[in-house]
Every structure is written in C-alpha cells, then in structure tokens.
Specification:
mainly alpha, 6 strands, about 60% helix
Length: about 180
Amino acid sequence: MMNVYGYRVDALLAQCQTLHEPVSDRWGSRYEIDMYKCNKSISCDVATIQRSERVTWLLGGVVFLSIADLVLTLSYLTSVGMSEGNPIALWLLQTTDSIWPLAIYKGITVAVCVTLLYWNRQKRQSELASWCALMILAALTFWWNQYSHYQPMLPLAEDHIVMIGDTFEQPCSVDKFPNSRQ
C-alpha cells in the first residue's frame, strides 16, 4: 500500500476496521460496520497527518527566520546601530544596557508561540497561524534586506541606538529643553 507522511494507508484501514467491527452490547444488540464513516475517518486521519506535517515544517521555518532576525538585530545594534521598532525590546535595551535580555525575550516569545502551535498542530487554526507567522517573518526578512542595502544612505533618526562599550547610546538625541531645571 501507499505511504502517506510515514503512515501506511493499509495500517489506517486496519485501525478503522478494528474500531468499527460489529460488536454486541450487553443486551445482545449487534452493530454493523458503517463503511461510509470508516472511509471518512481514514480521509480525516490522512488530512490530519498532512496538516500536522505542514505545521511542523512551517514552525521550523519560523524558528529559522526568528534566529536570523535575532542575529541581524544584535549585529546591527553592536556595530552601526539602528532604530528598534519593538517598544518592549527598546525598553529592555535602554533599561539594561545589554543585548542579553533582548535575546532571552525574543527566545522566550518564539519558544512559547512555537510550542503552542506545535501542540495544536492538528487543528486548522494552528496551520493558519503558522502560515501567518512565516509570512510575517518572511516580510521582516525582506525588510532586513532593504534596510541593509539602504542603511548607509539613511539619516540617523532621533531614536537611533548603538552599543558603544557596555552601554547603549543615542547619538542623535536632542535635549529639547536645555535650560530647564529638572
């Protein structure tokens, strides 16, 4: 018989037939095999197996692109600097003056999301969410490509940060009220 994502179709048929064998209840009534339900359950099993396989591959892509995003973020922060678009990540960088809390934060968020989607990989919603996550990260990868190409020509923004030594500096920060007392 044919193999479908590592499962033999004849094994699925055997499971279906053993689950729907004629049985007698304690009053002597007999139940017949409903072949329509049996065939339907086999097709559902194959579809579930295929969905599970797709979600697993999609989540592998999500992890790979998330790691690439983290590597690029850290390399730009520690070399030429950048404007961080994530307010939580920006707060972590400014309050800790370290890249490690950012790496841990990104690792935890990706791990939690991927784990939840993996646990629910048989459901349509998990597949849809996995596709969305992969497309968002693919768009982010495209954005990184454009940013790396045009970054030397971009003016420095007010929120531009760069790690110099052990602290993050904002080379373009302007004191809006230089004569005011705080």
